[in-house]
Amino acid sequence: MHGVVAPNPGPFTLEGTNTWIVGAGPTLVIDPGPDDRGHLDAIRERAGHIGAILLTHHHPDHAPGAVALGRKAGAPVMAASPRPGERPLQDGMTVEADDVVLQVVAAPGHTPDHVVFFERDRAALFTGDAVLGRGTSVIDPPEGDLAAYVRSLHRMVELRPEVIFPGHGPIVRPALAKLAEYLEHRDERERQVLRALRDGPQRPEEIVPAIYVEYPEALHAAAARSVLAHLIKLERAGVVARVAPSSDRFELTDRGSRNDAPT
Asked: What does the pLDDT look like over 34-80, one tens digit per residue?
């Protein structure tokens, strides 16, 4: 197992995108990251004979290098929503190279087509942006869907992984503790959003300062998108509603005002 970190550090990419190289040859390359020549050369040097290039999703910090790498290595690029020249990945299928078998697991939420890869023999889970080594994943509507994301987290728990190789940040052990932390974090944020609405109708950006007190103001816009994701999830559950059909202000429904409202 080898990791190569792309030179794209930032507040959302942390130290940079992790490209994971699995197997001894032929190898499987997960998320080659940006189309950066130095990074792609480093991947080829570490990976040797590449059997396939796998994408967790098509975000620009994970996927643009795939085409160039595939062309140089003579390897196919595979994704759940394949673009021209790519091959499809389907939930439940396996991808094999050398002595490595990766199971494709649909994990929508961060994006509709996000997948993770599970190596059962080593109980290793390659999570892309679904689980990070530090911090939490951004769920940004309409591409992001928090209800789907929570279901994906539960599905990852069912795999019983022992170690997580994330798309950004350090390797995570124990994996189940991290997944439990992620689920509790989302539950707590939901409770905070509901408490904020007890003071009356609010827009997502009006809720942020009260529940993201530890975040610098520069990240408040992104935090507002996360709050919106929670509000949309709660709206679908009938717990909150918009004050008018086209409004960006939300209020508690009668159901949401009750103490037994789901959180």
From this structure: 999 999 999 999 999 999 999 999 999 999 999 999 999 999 999 99
Q: For residues 7 and 19, is the Cβ–Cβ distance under 8 A?
A: no
What are the residue ranges spanned by the domains of the chain? 2-173, 184-257
**Domain 184-257: which topology?**
Arc Repressor Mutant, subunit A (1.10.10)
Per-residue pLDDT, 195: 96
- Residue 120 makes CB contacts below 8 A (sequence gap 6+) with 101, 103
- What CATH number was assigned to the domain covering residues 2-173? 3.60.15.10
Give the containing element (helix H, strand E) for 221.
helix 220-236
Distance CA 105, CA 118 (A): 7
Reference 225, options 133, 157, 139; nearest CA is 139
Phi, psi of 215 (to 5 degrees): -90, 140
Percent of the chain scored above 90 by pLDDT? 88
- pTM for the whole thing? 0.93
